[in-house]
Amino acid sequence: MSSAAPAEIQAAAEDQNSLRAILRARWDAIRSGDVGSLPVIIGIVAIGLFFNSKTSIFFSAVNFQNLIGQMAGPTVIAIGVVFVLLIGEIDLSIGFLSGLAGVAVAYYQQAGTGHDYPGLVALALAILVGMVIGFTQGSIVAFLGVPSFVVTLAGLLICQGLILQILGTAGVIGIQDKQINDIANYVLSKNTGWIVAIVFAVGLAAAAFGSYFSRKRAGLPTGNILLTTARVVFFGGLAFAVVHVCNQAKPRAGVPLVGLIVLFLVVLGGYVAGRTTFGRHVYAVGGNAEAARRAGINVKLIRILVFMISGAMAAMGGVILASRLNGISLESAGGGTILLDSISAAVIGGVSLFGGRGRVSGALFGGLIIGMIANGIDLVGYTDAIKLITTGAILLAAVTLDTVLRRRQAAAGR
Amino acid sequence: MNAASPPTLELRGVSKNFGSVQALREADFEVSDGEVMALVGDNGAGKSTLIKCVAGIYTIDGGQIFFEGNPVTIHGPKDAAKLGIEVVYQDLALCDNLDVVQNMYLGREAHDPLFRLREAPMERRTAETLKSLSVTTIRSVRQPVATLSGGQRQSVAVARAVLWNNRVVFLDEPTAALGVAQTRQVLDLVKRLAEQGLAVVLVSHNLVDVFEVADRITVLRLGREIGVYEKGKTNEREIVEAITSGAPAPEETEVVS
Questions:
Q1: Which one of B11, B144, B231, B236 has the lowest number of neighbouring Cβ atoms within 10 Å?
Q2: Does the predicted TM-score (pTM) go above 0.90?
Q3: A174 and A225 together in one domain
Q4: Which domains does chain B have, with CATH numbers?
């Protein structure tokens, strides 16, 4: 009986791989409320076209370079937010936690103070601060069952207080360390950029075709080879296009290092969430924590680890923001719209506030949309008022879409 | 039901208290390979508590659990899983956001030493298991469970028990929320489980279902076992009386406290 099964499964798999069947399945999924990244892509194109019609600088090479630097901080923080949202919790501390990490990295490189460590050590210490705070918050949520909203609200206030305490009367610490300043400000040489693009494209192709052939060998539905190739060509081409544009920028041509850091963290986060047992358990806890517990998953441990990831990512984002400004001040440390920008980026990127749905790459797409709006509005010369209203409206649209789609998806099952 | 070998799972004098409430009072229960044992009783009789004790959700306060004649202790879901005891809960304990494969392997994913998921073997075995149980209505094992019908969801939950080569499967009210055709599907599935040699425990309020698939029937009342009935030697009336008044146990008089 079991020897006959694979052949039949394979036969069934063959028809599932035709372009037509895949398109039909995709269309069915969209109708039942699983729209994937469709709204985000439409949003990116629409926003790009709008600002392009308003100002010619928007699509210039130097602005593109600038946009990468601008969106890097919130995007990295948003990666952590994605994990927290996936388990159905919220982390409000990330804004000031990122500020505190910025303070930490500046503090630990301060020359002539007895705590002037090398740049990378200061960076590690800043991320450690984020992880310790994440661990503390996660433990309170997991073991005592205090709602994460309140725990992290308290964390927000405590982080803000610590920033005030440390920056104190001076109110500012400058960053002289070259390694730290390079994080947000270094641009790769033109040729290094091309090498990165080649490595990225080859890695992408290896992953896509490797998965295709290993599934084919196992006699499972593989998807369509043309579609897989098209995807590899599109995203690989995109990498080359990005490098090409950045290499045109004046005065400092080249891909910003921080763009590479963001890409690396998004890929790493996506890998952890999508391809590891830990990631699977994160989705399970967000989908049905009770079911996860009964299946023997250590739900408390997952919650704590996720808050630690959130803390670490917020810290990394904070270091990027501090590096961009070559220092940290009371005005720049975690205040302003950084908290809401990061959460908005994750939500706009299609991550559900109700837990269990969304991808890490959503942080990149959402971060891009938030970054494009902020960047475009500044260029066109609209006021901050318009910026806030637009971002708010897009966030509202994203959350509404999420809520409506979720209801639709639930209804489709009955 | 071989008299010589001990029952696959046996509970002797098991008690469980929640504060002053005694949910189980020295209850006995047993089930053997290849049989469908029905567990019936009114609301509050202790059926759910008994299941949760065996599944490792609760730890028992007194008595002893035996597996194939050997005393065992069950402290958590992992212990129960190790023994090969699987519970299909009334609310199914499925993650709606995950697909069929992901739910079947929930908490026991196949992975390499670096904790990377090995999707291909998981997907393949899921498809084979569903097929071996003649579950043919699920279009793709990669669709989220949220998009399945009630009967399909039940099938996934039951197939999960089979996938793991379990010895004892508890089904808690598997037909409660289903229509006629889907109930049919699930009852067939229950019979097939026993035919594959598993010890199956069917917990149900529906005596029609119970009499259709069960070999023996255990009646619980107020946390105690009232009696075990062979299906061929009893009828619905006797079972109803046992459930409501505990009548067939003559030495037991109605306690009014």
A1: B236
A2: no
A3: no
A4: 9-92+167-245 (3.40.50.300)
